[in-house]
Each structure stands twice: as C-alpha cells, then as structure tokens.
Design goal:
By secondary structure, the chain is an alpha/beta fold. Helix content is 25%, strand content 24%.
Length: 261
C-alpha cells in the first residue's frame, strides 16, 4: 500500500491532485491518502480507486475507536460496483497520525472537539473529489455509529447526494442525529440498526420523523453477537442481505455512470 500526500486548505485554492493507484488493478489494493483539515491538521484515509473514470465517490466514516480498515471488505465491494471509495481515519486515532498529528487522542476530546470534526468531512470530500477518476459532483456518505452522526453533521455540502447510516444515535458526542438529518434536507437517506441496539427502533423512528426527503429504515434481527452494530453488521451472517440492500439503495440514489455523457 503506497502513501500519497494531498494538502487541502480551507479555501481549496491551488489544490493538487494526489495520483491514485492504477484504477485498473484487479487486487483493489487501497492507496493511503493524506490531506489537511481546515485547522491545518494532517489526516489520512484509504482510497480504493474505481475501474472507470468519472465515477461517483463514497466517503466512509468509522466509529470511535475503529479505523478505516473497518470498511475493507465492503469498500472492495463498492469499488467493484463502480464507486470510488475513501475511508477516512478520524482525527485522534492512531491510524490517522502523520508526522504533524502529534499525540492527539480522541479519548481526551471534549464535546466541542467532537462537534468540530464535522469540518473534517469537508476536507475529506475535497480530497476524494480531487482524485482524477472521481466525479466531484456525485458523492455520497456512509457512516457507522459516531461516523453515521458525523456523516450527517458534516454532509451538508451540495455534492453529497445520499447517505447510508449504520447504527446511528439520537445524540452521539453532541452530534444529534435527527437534527442533522433535518439539515441534510431532501436528499435520500437509508438508516439501519439492530434490534439488539437499545436505541435501534427509537432512533430510526426519530430520523424518519425528521427526514425531509426519501428515507428508508431497516431494523435488523439480532443474533446477540458483537456484530450487531455499525460496519460489523455487514459481516454478520444473520444480516447477510444488508450489503445487498445498501448497494441497491446507492445504485438508485448515486448510480455509477449517471454523470457521464
């Protein structure tokens, strides 16, 4: 896995594209990209380049304590379906550390720190949109748990056309799911949770009430395992259809090829 450096300033002026791995590689090995958040912090992510140019892009956001590799299997599937995929390592996590990231640790964050992470979504969006294979006007978000709430809180920029939320919360470190979904406007959203999640049905109903556009909710059966939450649900045999449902939803709301002449 190679690393490419990209620096994204607040104004996004003079943005240099970081070359991606050959998009036609069949092993779908991700490239590590580094970009700069609005406060100057260097952040990183894993990028799966699509096989075709002008592909829609998906930004994947993990839960606290996880990292970009939480999405590896599903990211490869999304890439095979025609998407460019960037899974972000959120600030304060060891995998996100670069030579200028220092010893920042999310366990020591306070509420304003978590709420401020919404700005990192915009920097990641600029990084993804600058890849030469990506259509920057056709982007979507997929988030798990804290990352689901963060996706909505930071996804108000117009290029984001759709969102998928896995195990979202009513209030995750000050990021309120229903309020954020209302701000997401009339763009389509799919939310999934397990019956083992104490907030599962409650948060899905609250999100449905706040939605201004198309909203699909999936309350999935529990098998009382650690894989009843977030991205782990995608690898749970008891929820084997979840990946298919998400891909079908994305194909309807962010279809590969729709922006090409």
């Amino acid at each position: 896995m190679k690393t490419h450096w990209m620096f994204v300033g607040a104004a996004l002026l003079g943005l240099a594209q970081a070359p991606a791995e050959d998009a036609k590689r069949e092993d779908a090995t991700p490239t590590r990209l580094v970009f700069r958040a609005s406060d100057g912090l260097e952040m990183s992510g894993l990028y799966w380049a699509p096989a075709a140019r002008k592909a829609p892009g998906l930004l994947l956001l993990h839960h606290l304590g996880h990292n970009a590799w939480a999405w590896d299997e599903f990211a490869r599937r999304l890439r095979a379906e025609g998407y460019a995929v960037l899974a972000v390592n959120l600030r304060g996590h060891p995998e996100a550390a670069t030579r200028k990231a220092g010893g920042m640790n999310w366990l020591r964050f306070e509420l304003p720190d978590f709420q401020g992470m919404a700005k990192d979504v915009d920097a990641a969006r600029a990084c993804l949109g600058a890849q030469r294979e990506v259509d920057p006007t056709h982007l979507g978000l997929v988030g798990e748990q804290f990352g689901a709430n963060l996706a909505l809180a930071g996804g108000t920029a117009e290029p984001f056309r759709t969102a998928v939320l896995l195990s979202p919360a009513l209030n995750e470190r000050g990021l309120k799911g229903p309020e954020a979904l209302a701000a997401f406007g009339d763009r389509p959203c799919l939310a999934a949770a397990s019956t083992d999640d104490p907030q599962g049905s409650e948060v899905l109903e609250a999100l449905k009430a706040s939605a201004k556009g198309r909203f699909e909710m999936l309350l999935l059966p529990s098998d009382a395992s650690p894989r009843d939450y977030g991205a782990l649900m995608l690898t749970d045999p008891a929820k084997k259809d979840l990946g298919d449902r998400i891909v079908a939803f994305l194909k309807e709301t962010l279809a590969p090829g729709e922006s090409r002449p």
